[in-house]
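Table S5 (text form). Sequence records supplied for joint modeling of the three-component complex.
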Amino acid sequence: MSEAQNTILDIRNLDISFKTNAGVIHAIRGANIDLCKGETIAVVGESGSGKSVTMKAVMGLLDSNATVNSGEIIYNYVDASGKKQSVDLLKMPKKQLRQQINGQRIAMVFQDPMTSLDPTMTIGKQIMEGMFLHKNMSKEAARARAIELLELVGIPEAEKRFKNYPHQLSGGMRQRVVIAIALSADPDILICDEPTTALDVTIQARILELIMDIQKKMGLSVIYITHDLGVVAKVADYVLVMYAGKVVEIGNVNDIFYDPRHPYTWGLLSAMPDLDTDDDRLYSIPGSPPNLLHEPKGDAFAARNPFAMVIDEKAEPPMFEISRTHRAATWLLHPDAPKIEMPPELKARIKRAQKEAEKYL
Amino acid sequence: MAKEKLQPQAAAAAAYVPVPGDFELLDRQDLRIDTNFASQSYWKGVFTHFFKNRRAVIGLVIISVIILLAAFGPVMNSFGYRDIVQYRNEKNKRVVAKGIPPQVPALHRLLTGQELEGNFSDYTFLFGTDDLGRDLWTRTWYGARVSLLIAFVTIIIDMIIGMSYGLISGYFGGRVDNIMQRFVEIANSVPRLVIVSVLAIFMPKGMGLVIVALLLTEWIGMSKIARAEMLKIKEQEYVLASRTLGAQNIHIIFREILPNTIGPIITQVMFSIPTAIFTEAFLSFVGVGIVLPQCSVGTLIEDGFNNITTLPYQILPPILVLALLMLGFNFIGDGLREALAPKLEDM
Amino acid sequence: MTKYILKRIGMALLTLLIITFLLFLLVRIMPGNPFPSERMSADQIANKRAEMGLDDPIHIQFFRYLGGVLQGDFGKGTSLYNGAPIKTVLSTAISNSFRIGGMAILLGTFVGLVLGITAALHKGKFLDGFCTVFSILGVCVPSYVFLIFLQYTFSFRIPFFPYFFDPTRFAFSAVIPSVSLSLFTMSTIARFTRNEMVEVFDSDYVRLAEAKGMYGRELVTKHVLRNALIPIVTVLAPLVVDLLTGALVVEKIYGINGIGKLMVDAIAGEGIDYNYVLALGILYSALYIGIMLVVDLLYGVLDPRIRVTAKVREA
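The corresponding structure-token record, covering 1023 residues in total, follows.
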């Protein structure tokens, strides 16, 4: 298992609940995710599926009303002396987590660049903070490095911008600054929480390219959290589909886009707007994500699944292996289940997309 | 990329052994009905949230109790608020119940087994009497009526003047808004006290002066809130829709937009009531508010203060009533604000 | 920036001028006349009026008055202090009110900040609850009630502090009024600071700072406090005005010859002293507008968003 040593982040059976006024919300119900060095994974799902909470748990940024019921988040790294280390981030005290992991090992880019920068501090200072915290840099060195980073993330006139306050920059520019902050202490892992949702479509593509570019240059491992399958197709090696606090389908990009198996993934793909579809009705998945105040019995997706079976209301489906890279948690994959095909519209669409893709090969 | 990507799934889920019939399709027709959120109406949510808030409920109870006591307290005994409790003794000499501390003969008998002493040993004075011999229980609740009346007036001022001003200014925008806002700026630059002092020149002291003073100052805060809400809402599609359909401005403002701004507006009302009650108490204390022999919480505190060295108990009831009124309205305001904008845990 | 400041100052002066004129107009057209007419014949009154310039057109009278005010001359009182010049009476009153009010502001702001920050840092725990109860109490009970309580306890029952204000022992006798005046400021600041800090703690930029690896004291001082304290300047302003101009009732009860007591005497006594009402009205408005202006400009200096917008507007 030489690959196993390559795993840099390994989330196992994560189970988190929140105490709220309305009651206890069981937000994460046994999520398993792992990430290898240098690769990019994308976690997709509707809002409330638990994708952000999972990543906040990695960063130790869970709100104070959250309880981790079980699970572990193993982070493997090589320390300064070249020795391999392996730690459970969930067991680490907050202070140690901040000193040793946050920023310098695992960094995060947040969703809304308009609110993620401190309005009262120049962007230059905000970028240098990470260096002072983790690298013990001199002021001059940090300044030089910060300007370098600003140039790296594509901010023109970096010297001048260094002294700017966040509100003097546009949304796209601010997101670049947030990325520069994330990179300031040379992390191994970059978590991007919907890095482009708050931005214009034209800027979105540029930011994604920027992240991919930097990833190559710096050898980062990247986790995207998104509900935008367009982003996923563009950047990810692996895709994890989350639903109601669980991973329901995992596969590489080809598996998920050309051979999806979970009816929820079908729904997600059908809901993607597509210029070529003749059918002008935009598909949406019926209903809304389950209210995790009242935990669903059986398959959490059953209530919205047009192909729900009797068993879905009795027991949660296990992960069924489809291929070496592809798994999904739905009873439809059980040998005894009726052979349900994906909806014909989706099938036609995938065919078209495949043809399209072949043209460019 | 050739590598095991997957973790073995938790054993518990796999343990279920399917039985025949499990793999029948349910083929339900009701999929499109969203049962998660469909049943929760907005106001019902606000309502439940409010009543789950301990402080808000305490506030509501306090205010309700004060309203009940203000309504029925003065008629619970036979003393009028300006009546001096007295009787004529055998020698046909007047005996006045001056400065009697709180006393309940029945309770005294129960606790000590002895009768009360003094000329009024068989009278019940829950809060005692003042230096002139008036029953403080009656006067306190009579004074509370004044405070509640002020609260009511404030609601009217806020809701009619302040709200309309803000809504109209925000709705029309442009020059109308500009002029109206300049006026607010100037009105806001005059300290309340200056307005009161000028009023004192033109008006006789009393309730009227207090109300006019509130009328001139209370609406400003509310107009700001209402304008801000209006600016937020007027750009929304449904407003545009009804404008396109040819609705009148007045109709749009008061029938379409008002109902959607009512939450923050009610909250603001709850917060401006304490200020108004404070203002009345202070004006009456200073001597430009309620005039004798009427009484309000403010004049009662003043009376209490004047007699504090001889009859220290006298000042307590009005202070308690004032503080509880403040507390109650503040709690209700806080509760409403939280109920209207609950902080959802983002997931 | 300079242009912005000048514009704000100009606006403030204009507002003050409008208010002064309105006050002047209202006080001059009031019913009744400024002389005890029973003792004067119609001729005498007419002479006196002409002598005082009361027959001139109102705007001429106004500018004459304004000219006096700018030199600190507010005329004489009609009934208070036997017609002593208002300037002399007012300067003592201002000095008393400002000193006591200033002490109250310093005390209230300092303790309020400490309480608010403590509560925010211990959100949801005992200390938070304690500070909340304290600040609710301070907002729900008027300062003069605290004064009565303190006066009764520490001057009457335990005769330690003077029962009434004694200008010869200023610092000592200012303790009770300053403390009772500070309580409202204290609770308001404590409550506001706590809520602001809790909000900032929840903000995305604090999340980002944490993701950078910042924690504890450094996080609080570098990111939370700065952002939470800027808006406090705005709540502080009206509190400062209230305190500097003397909380009327407190001064009245404790016998402090301050602006507040003067105002009460001018409006609540037997006869109303119009000239004092006018002079005090102008003073109050000037202070109010002046402090609002200072806060506005201060806010601009503290908050880069405004500072830079002003710069841009200027360009």
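Note: The domain at 95-270 of chain C is CATH 1.10.3720.10 (MetI-like fold).
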